[in-house]
Hints:
Number of strands: 0
Number of helices: 8
Shape: globular
Strand content: under 5%
Amino acid sequence: MFDLQLNFREIFSAFMVLFAVIDITGSLPIIIDLKQKHGKIDALKAASFALGIMLMFFFIGEPLLGIFGVDIYSFAIAGSLVVFFVGLEMVLGIDFFRGTTPAGVSIVPIAFPLVAGAGAITSMLSLKAEYHAANILIALVLNMVIVYIVVKSAEWFEKVIGKAGIMILRKFFGIILLAIAIKLFLTNTGIHITH
């Protein structure tokens, strides 16, 4: 069942989807604020816990859907809509899903819901309908490495990139996410656009 067909294009595409949905750079202001309020944040714990949540959902998500009589393609279409709205959030700067972030530590709210939130979990299952499992898992692990680095170096990133730079990154990845959401929707509905 576990397919080891490694493909750089699939790894890169899955990596970009997850990177855009997780949006750890867009969460930098929240992470910096939490560090100021609660002191040191354990970056390894945050990344590990988020990885654990994502892996659990990756492996038991499909059987769980079966209980509700939903196939992976239907879920992927629903997921593409969620990803689309997350992209709109990033581009337009409005909140569809995230309310006010509660005060917490490494696990809540950073690992969940900032990293392993509804959008990221939904995207994992959506990607499963299109890419080989091994490629998605490599992309996921690479993303968790980036989550670790960003959380560990949050204050340094703010100094280097600046608030304007963080905002530009958020908008850029929002546009990429919108395009990816449309592609996921079209792929899973069987709609083909002629070039």
